[in-house]
Specification:
The protein has 346 residues and is an all-alpha fold. The protein has two domains: 166 residues, no CATH class; 174 residues, no CATH class. 68% of the residues lie in helices and 0% in strands. It is built from twelve helices and no strands. Helix 2 packs antiparallel against helix 4 and helix 2 packs antiparallel against helix 11. The longest helix has 30 residues. The protein is flat.
């Protein structure tokens, strides 16, 4: 019955949201692959690549393009990885514009979200700026970390809007506490930021042993003050990192401490909301959070154990995105535990 009463604009809004979630997840994973395969500067300019929208193929044009950036030899594989990532990010931006347009066309519907889609568009515009600064500021860690956070924020907002369309808009009528999930989300956000800082400073293998770091439970040589200097000025090329070993050890060690905190907090959230007293949607969401956080920690251990293999490192970013989606879904389920949820709990 609902399909007969939904306006065409609302249907297009829902489709654009679904496409946006899929594209955002793809862009995040591909962006991780580009960064981890050292292709972040595969195109030294922006938005083009050596002055072209498509990497030139003939020798004459390639030579002319190379003259624009003589210090950056053209590497076809890295350049194409970076360009495909940009193409997909642009497509994601277009899908979000479609979300905003569909929301505006359906603005007379009192249930149609309007402000959040506009806020989402603002986030994506700023994300585009971060993408440009990532290249023009030569992989500055603070910008790279912000770019990762921006991408995951985009994914989370898209997912929330899609959940609003798929789950009844009833308010919590079961007494399900929301604050534990909010705490879990905050801890996860902090750990994602630490992960971005670790990756952008090339500190993933600073502690090559597990569970100790440099053979110690608390590494003596860690330089925490130097490892967490957020801004070091302009004109520095951060490709392959600029920090010494003690600074990278400090970054990696703090990331491990964050992982233990996230495992503890999110594990507790998953256990608490997985109990039979809560509605089925909440229990299912809790199970997804628990599975994702355990998988993420296992992958993190595997990255150190096997020496940062590219597929495993890329999957670490992918599972982080899935874990974020799981926490957002659980948060939405706790907020929307309406009368149907109360009957299920009874």
């Amino acid at each position: 019955m609902e399909a007969r009463t939904v306006s065409p604009a609302r249907r297009w809004y829902r489709r654009a949201l679904a496409v946006g979630v899929a594209l955002a997840l793809t862009v995040i994973v591909l962006g991780a692959y580009v960064r981890l395969s050292d292709a972040g500067l595969g195109c030294p300019d922006w938005p083009g690549c050596y002055g072209h929208l498509v990497l030139p193929g003939d020798d004459a044009r390639r030579d002319a393009a190379q003259l624009l950036y003589p210090e950056r030899p053209i590497e076809d594989g890295k350049a194409w990885r970076e360009m495909v990532h940009r193409y997909l990010a642009t497509t994601l931006g277009l899908s979000i514009i479609a979300v905003v347009v569909a929301a505006w066309l359906n603005r007379r519907d009192p249930t149609q979200p309007r402000r959040v889609p506009v806020a989402l568009l603002a986030v994506v515009c700023f994300q585009g700026l971060l993408g440009m600064w990532t290249v023009t500021l030569l992989l500055k860690p603070l910008v790279v970390m912000g770019h990762l956070i921006g991408g995951l924020t985009t994914l989370a907002i898209l997912a929330w809007l899609l959940l609003e369309e798929r789950r009844p808009a009833a308010r919590n009528a079961v007494g399900v506490p929301v604050w534990p999930v909010v705490v879990g989300l905050a801890v996860l956000a902090g750990q994602i930021a630490l992960g971005g800082w670790t990756s952008s400073n090339y500190a993933a293998l600073a502690c090559p042993d597990v569970p100790t770091c440099q053979g110690q439970w608390w590494p003596d040589e860690a330089n925490f003050a130097e490892g967490f200097v957020l801004w070091r000025g302009l004109g520095i090329n951060y490709e392959f990192g600029v920090l010494d070993a003690p600074s990278r050890v400090a970054i990696h060690f703090v990331h491990r401490l964050g992982a233990l905190t996230a495992l503890t907090v999110l594990g507790a959230v998953a256990w608490y909301f997985g109990r039979p007293r809560w509605p089925a949607a909440v229990r299912t969401g809790a199970a997804a959070v628990g599975a994702a956080v355990v998988l993420q920690v296992a992958i993190g251990v595997g990255i150190v154990w096997f020496g940062l293999p590219l597929p495993l490192a890329t999957s670490h970013n992918a599972v982080a995105a899935l874990l974020l989606l799981a926490v957002v879904n659980l948060l939405h389920a706790t907020i929307r535990s309406g009368p149907a949820g109360r009957r299920a709990a009874a």
